[in-house]
What we know:
Elements: H1 3-7, E1 8-10, H2 18-21, E2 29-33, H3 35-45, E3 52-56, H4 63-72, H5 78-86, H6 92-102, H7 116-128, H8 131-142, E4 147-150, E5 157-163, E6 173-177, H9 179-184, E7 188-195, H10 203-211, E8 214-217, H11 222-226, H12 233-241, E9 245-249, H13 264-274, E10 282-286, H14 293-301, E11 306-310, H15 323-336
Parallel strand pairs: 1-11, 2-3, 2-8, 3-4, 8-9, 9-10, 10-11
Antiparallel strand pairs: 5-6, 5-7
Helix pairs in contact: 3-5, 3-15, 5-6, 7-8, 10-12, 13-14
Amino acid sequence: MTGRTFRMRRLRRGAPELSARxxxxxxxVVALGGGMGLSASLAALRRITGDLTAxxxxxxxxGSSGRLREELGVLPPGDLxxxxxxxxxxxDWGQTWARVIQHRFQSQGDLHEHAVGNLLIVALWExxxxxxxxxxxxxxxxxxxxxxxxxxxxxxxxxxxxRGHDPERPDEVETVRGQATVALTRGEVQSVHLVPNxxxxxxxxxAAVLDAxxxxxxxxxxxxxxxxxxxxxxxxxxxxxxxxxxxxxLNLAPQPGETSGFSPQRHLEVLGRHAPxxxxxxxxxxxxxVPDRESLVDAAIRFGAAVELASVAAPDxxxxxxxxxxAAAYDRIFRMHGRIGPWR
Length: 344
């Protein structure tokens, strides 16, 4: 058996066994990301642990979040809201509240397309004057199966160096500003950075990463939701220093715009350019989304990681993670790659 085949394994399907382990045997898991990718990961992880913390990017400047950010000077609440909705349970209470906070008003006035959850979160920020306390209170109201934290307490602007953002000048590299614009660029993203370039991390987020048994990064928009976590110095230091094992969950398909044409291994390469000191333990990919498995294994080895292949996509063929299949994949990774916390 070669080194490559030894480090690339296929995970079998199967339901997680949270009840069999019991609450005292649950791993402490921290998931980092934003948008629908993080929501998919949280919907899976809440099925296998009750000790779950989401650390969410706060650079969104589009839609309802962007309007609230511009008008009130607050953190963009949208990705935080999506994470809270993903942590709602499958019972009537959880699903009702998930629908309520995701509900968007439809009107001809200023409320058009504002999400109820965004308004609730911002109202509590203004009432309490504390981002973390307010999000904890919303989580308690929803009966969320975990905690949601912003990665920084200051609104951030995402900027990218993009080649060919203007189709009429395909070889020119220019700075593109704003997460919404970066996500939709038709050019090739070279790198991203944050403004301010050394934002303070939320202390509770740093503490959660340092205290975790497992840290999960991705899936999600690579340049606008995943990599930004590596651009907050205190958070990156925690990710490098933590004794937790680190899982990188790859997307099911390239994202139109910012990662058009990216192979799975190229996702790893750009991650490494932004955080060369970061090590990983496992890279999780859907087996149907990996046409060149040896190249992915080579890219993962540079991070010190093994590759795990599993069927985690929705059965209908859409590029969406199935929460139960993704939960089974995470559960097996946690079992197969060792347990380092008191839940061992």
